[in-house]
Design goal:
The protein is built from four helices and five strands, in the order αββαββααβ. It has 116 residues and is α+β, with helices and mostly antiparallel strands. About 16% of the residues have low confidence.
Length: 116
């Protein structure tokens, strides 16, 4: 039993070291992924939203599906939302992304009007 516990502890310790060093082990190959870079899908969505909402004062797009592009979270703040209800703001974002949404599993949208 003691040997099994040591083996498990050793495995957990190794896994934690890999996580701390920002490495992912896949089929005995070590791959690095910098968490500060955007995925292609995130970049594409940001470009579309910047074009559709040029007055946006804040825009953040995050692939929350683990990088496969199936689900995104969008935070956008724009004066173009002023006077519109939340549902109308979300409809504008959905309309801007109608082509991309077809290939997604889900989308979280957070909209706001800049505080002045």
């Amino acid at each position: 039993m003691l040997a099994r516990t040591r083996s498990l502890t050793s495995s957990v310790t190794s896994a934690l070291r890999l996580l701390r060093s920002n490495q992912v082990v896949v089929s005995a190959h070590v791959t690095r992924r910098c968490l500060c870079t955007q995925t292609d899908g995130e970049i594409r969505i940001v470009e579309i939203l910047k074009e559709k909402f040029p007055l946006a004062s804040s825009l953040k797009v995050v692939d929350i599906s683990g990088g496969c592009g199936a689900m995104y979270e969008i935070h956008i703040e724009s004066s173009e939302f002023k006077g519109k209800r939340t549902i109308q703001q979300h409809q504008l974002v959905n309309q801007a992304l109608k082509e991309e949404i077809q290939g997604m599993h889900g989308l979280r949208i957070f909209t706001d009007v800049p505080k002045q």
